Structure formats: C-alpha cells, structure tokens
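User: I've been trying to design a sequence by hand for this structure and keep getting stuck. Would you show me what you'd pick, starting by listing the structure so we're on the same page?

Assistant: Good idea, let's start from the same input. This is the structure you sent:
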C-alpha cells in the first residue's frame, strides 16, 4: 500500500479485521500478525521488505524533521526511528514490545503499605527468568538468563518514606487487571534538594560523591528545576513477560527522549549492560561500585539522547542506503526544479547569515552539530550555561530559526 490510495470501502474492510486496531496516532496491527508478516515478507521477497523498511524509516525521519511546534510530543516518532537505526539488540528489543503497553502511574504516600507489601512479595516469589529476543534484519538471536537472586536486585534498597519526603512524584507503579502492583520505578530529578539523597543511596553514591566542584554546581540547580534525571530502579515481577517489559521500555524511552541528562546504575547483569550500551549510554569513569552483591563491579551510565542526534544518525543511514537504488523508495523525496531553485536561493541567503556569526557562536554551532546539550557545550567551552543560551538566542535571530531543531537544520545545510 506504499504511496497508493485506497477507496473508503476498502479502508472500512481493512479496519474491520480483528488484528487491526485504532491507536493514538492512526492504525496498527496486532504484534503477532506484524511479526508473521515481517518474517514471511523477508523470506519470500527480501527486496520488497527492504523497500518498505527504508520507506518507513524515511517517513519517521521526515515527520520528526518537520515537527517544529513548541511543546510537541515527538516521542512516538523518536521511538519508531530508534527501532530502525538502533543496532540488532535494540531492534530485537523494540520489536519484542507490544503496541499498546501497560502504563506506570504515580503513587502517593497513601500507597506506602501497598509498596512495602509488593517488595516483600518480590523477594518471596522471585523466580528464574529467560529473555529471548530476535532481530529479523540481521537474523541474530539474543538470550539472557536472570536467576532468582539476580531478579531481586532491582527491588533492593527502596526507602519509600525518604523518597516521598523529597516532595516529587518520584515513585511510579504498574498494575495488573486486578489492580495489584506488578512493577515499580523510582526516577528522581537532579537538583540541590535531591543531591543529598543521591549521595547516600547505594546506586548513586559512587557517582554523586565523586563529582568535581564544578559538576556539583551544575547539578545544584533550584528545587523547582532539574539538571537531569537519576533512574534509581525500574522493577517488575516477571522479566520474561512481554507486556511488563514493554511498559518498562516505554517508561525508559519517555525519560531518554526528554533530551535531558539521564544517569543510571542498573544491576550488573548482561541483559542490562548490553541494552544500555546499545542505547548509547556511556560508562562514567568514577561511578563503579559493588553495592548490589558486594563483589561484582557495577558501572554507572550517562546518556543524553536528543532529537538532533537521532536525526543525524538516521540521515547518515539513509545516505548509506542511497546507492542501493531500487531498494529505496526515492519517489517520495524527489525535489521539483522549482523547489530546487528555492532551496538554492535559501542556501545563498543562509551562507551570508552564517558568515555573520561571531567566532564564539561558530564554536557553539559546531558543538551543537555534534549533538551536545547546552550544559555539555558550556563544559566544553568553559563558560556558563546561561552564556551558551545567550549565543543560541543570537544565532536563532541571525539565521531566522524558530527553535533549536530549525537552527540545527540550517547549520547543517550551510
């Protein structure tokens, strides 16, 4: 159905199938049917499969590129794009997910006893789990075993009373159809109010006590702001349950795709280590500890996953795919002579504007193109974040860009 119109009657017939359903932004098919179609199409017509895959990647790339509205939710497009441009493990992980996941929801102090019962049950009913993932595109299998003891790591050291005293909605829970808690997460904003807790909690102590004075100043923002997020834990009762892990994945992505700094020290298991590295997390040098079992070295990960990084990565992949010719659906992205002339005029105007940037603004622009955040740019240039914002505002005005994404697009084009 790529680039083909269908009649209203055919569309009504299509959406009546039991495996087709309405979702937030359009229509989708049941995951089992989707997987079955993918496998059959890949086996029978790999060329056509690749054409569809590249078309889909271009679609989400273009949707994300053109979405300039302030406060818009790009998470769906960013999530879908990551499923195409990620490595084999990330693709298999995302393809394993269900389309409509369960959700984590905030819980207040009224749920303290319920949370404590959940943790008691987790340790009492813990069991061995096996996670099996498959990436169709590379034909790779990934198998992870999590023992009964290891399954309890994510439920350790949860001081709910202290977490509630922080005053933020840091605790979220996932419930089953009967309303019982089957998962919980603690995600803490980093600011001067939460830093004392982060310096003491077992998962954050190594990293936050090892910060330099300059790093501490950057993290010690006012209580009503945040310098990033610390994911203390995300726990579920059954690691092999697809619906529960889908909920975990969507929650994790909602934090990662905020474009803010994310810090986490997950349990030292291959399942967590591999997925975090595949997602682009980096291990920080001073954040290693052995607090989970007293023996195993456990790293601390840091990530800034923003929209611009995904766009550049997708752009690179699409350029690499271009020589494949008939595997690409290039018709959608052909440019008319009139559009090309307009683009050339815009480029000439943009070159003149680009020349108007100061030396310091060019330095900021180069780091922006690398995908760095304002905080990271400030660190690289040894200036304050406020100074970076000032240069950014000036460049927005000079290049006629409405927001950061438009600015990056103009910079990369010129």
């Amino acid at each position: 159905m790529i680039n083909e119109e269908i009649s209203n009657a055919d569309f009504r017939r299509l959406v009546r199938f039991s495996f087709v359903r309405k979702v937030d932004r359009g229509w989708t098919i049941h995951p089992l049917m989707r997987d079955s179609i993918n496998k059959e199409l890949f086996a029978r017509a790999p060329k056509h499969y690749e054409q569809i895959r590249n078309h889909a990647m271009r679609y989400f790339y273009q949707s994300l590129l053109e979405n300039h509205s302030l406060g818009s939710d790009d998470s769906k497009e960013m999530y879908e794009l990551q499923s195409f441009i990620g490595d084999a493990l990330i693709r298999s992980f995302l393809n394993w997910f269900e389309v409509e996941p369960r959700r984590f929801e905030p819980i207040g102090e009224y749920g303290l006893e319920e949370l404590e019962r959940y943790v008691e049950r987790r340790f009492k009913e813990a069991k061995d789990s096996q996670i099996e993932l498959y990436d169709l595109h590379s034909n790779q299998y990934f198998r992870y075993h999590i023992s009964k003891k290891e399954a309890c790591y994510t439920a350790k050291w949860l001081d709910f009373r202290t977490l509630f005293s922080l005053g933020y909605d840091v605790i979220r829970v996932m419930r089953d159809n009967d309303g019982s808690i089957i998962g919980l997460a603690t995600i803490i904003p980093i600011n001067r109010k939460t830093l004392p807790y982060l310096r003491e909690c077992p998962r954050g102590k190594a990293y936050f006590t090892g910060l330099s004075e300059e790093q501490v100043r950057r993290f010690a923002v006012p209580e009503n702001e945040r310098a990033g997020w610390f994911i203390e834990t995300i726990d579920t009762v059954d690691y092999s349950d697809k619906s529960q892990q889908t909920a975990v994945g969507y929650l994790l992505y909602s934090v990662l795709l905020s474009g803010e700094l994310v810090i986490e020290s997950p349990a030292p298991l291959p399942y967590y280590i591999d997925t975090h590295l595949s997602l682009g997390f980096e291990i920080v040098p001073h954040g290693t500890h052995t607090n989970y079992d007293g023996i195993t070295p456990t790293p601390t990960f840091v990530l800034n996953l923003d929209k611009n990084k995904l766009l550049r990565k997708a752009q690179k992949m699409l350029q690499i795919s271009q020589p494949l010719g008939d595997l690409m659906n290039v018709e959608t992205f052909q440019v008319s002579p009139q559009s090309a002339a307009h683009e050339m005029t815009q480029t000439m105007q943009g070159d003149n504007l680009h020349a108007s940037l100061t030396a310091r603004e060019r330095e900021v622009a180069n780091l922006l193109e690398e995908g760095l955040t304002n905080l990271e740019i400030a660190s690289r240039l040894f200036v304050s974040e406020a100074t970076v914002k000032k240069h950014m505002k000036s460049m927005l005005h000079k290049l006629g860009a409405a927001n950061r994404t438009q600015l990056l697009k103009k910079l990369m084009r010129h």
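That's my pick for every position. To get oriented when you compare it with your attempt: The mean pLDDT is 80. The first strand starts at residue 20 and ends at 23.
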